[in-house]
Amino acid sequence: RHRVNCPGRPPWWTLWLPGLLAGCGGEMSILDAAGSAARQQFWIWWAMLGVAVAVSLGVYALWFYTFRRREPPPRTPREERRIMLRWVLGGGIALPVASIIALLVFAAPTGRGMLPLPDDGAERIEVIAHQWWWEVRYPGEEGERDVVTANRLVMPAGEPVDFRLTSTDVIHAFWIPRLGGKRDMIPGRYSSVRLEADSPGVFGAQCAEYCGAQHTHMLLHVEALERGDYDAWLAERRPPPGPGEGFAEAKEAFGEHCAACHTVGGFAEELVDDDLEHDIRGPDLSDIGSRPTLGAGVLPMEEGAIAYWLQHHQTLKPGNRMPAHDHIDTETLQAIGAWLETLEP
Ligand code: CUA
């Protein structure tokens, strides 16, 4: 292994300083709020820090006080008991209870503000967690198909959005640090959270509940768009996607190796042998060519990335639910990858 050549030891304070400053910025920082819920959580964070610092300083002060007074004055057992009660009941029970109640009263309105209101016309987006990727659904009106994508969440900016959350396997958690959250995603149950982005932008999000080996590789790319751009984004995905370019070369292989778990706007289902149990467990690939990353943030989407992913995904993201493709020759995987790259609206 490469040895890092370190000339002497850095001063002790440099160890925590970068960590402290790193917390102030970046696309995943709660201290850089970009939405109403996150802004309120930001103040809760500071209030909790303030209370924690005040309590710590009080405890340190008492601690130093005990050093200073070497010889305790003579006390009767009765006085001894009174002092004990004062500190145990006052400092050990009353003070923490009062601080926690004060924080609770301060924080309660934020929690209420993050609850969706029924039928007030807010945009609704469904997010379904899987080991280890995100399914994002935009339900259609009567007769329309749902727009389904993966590992990318596009939302309108400047208005509240209600997220309906669930999971298909284990508990995950939905968290967009700069917009607010987090909320657990529990299999068999729906939970909701209302978030709002102040203005258009790109935000990082990450599964916030340990959910197995690839919990770290469960990133969600969040984009807030102006209302008009959001509507256009959705409108171009609403009609069923066409077969893209190079489908003829990839069709047979896709039907044989991929279509039992992946769909492409529905039409890939026709490729699957009827005897096979058709159970969609992998991401819908309808607009895969337009997604910013592959494997929930493992690789950036660029030319040749899908074919590379198909060959090496068990090395890049060990244990992911897609079987290794060692039995399929490289040309076939490249043909499938090249075709999938053309799938964008
Ligand atoms: Cu999903 Cu951690």
TrEMBL record:
Pfam families: COX2 (PF00116), Cytochrom_C (PF00034). It is a multi-pass membrane protein. It is found in: Membrane. It catalyses: 4 Fe(II)-[cytochrome c] + O2 + 8 H(+)(in) = 4 Fe(III)-[cytochrome c] + 2 H2O + 4 H(+)(out). InterPro entries: CcO_II, CcO_II-like_C, Copper_CuA, Cupredoxin, CuRO_CcO_Caa3_II, Cyt_c-like_dom, Cyt_c-like_dom_sf, Cyt_c_oxidase_su2. Residues 120-236 form the Cytochrome oxidase subunit II copper A binding domain. Keywords: Copper, Electron transport, Heme, Iron, Membrane, Metal-binding, Respiratory chain, Transmembrane, Transmembrane helix, Transport. Its main location: membrane. NCBIfam families: CoxB (TIGR02866). This is Cytochrome aa3 subunit 2. The gene is coxB.
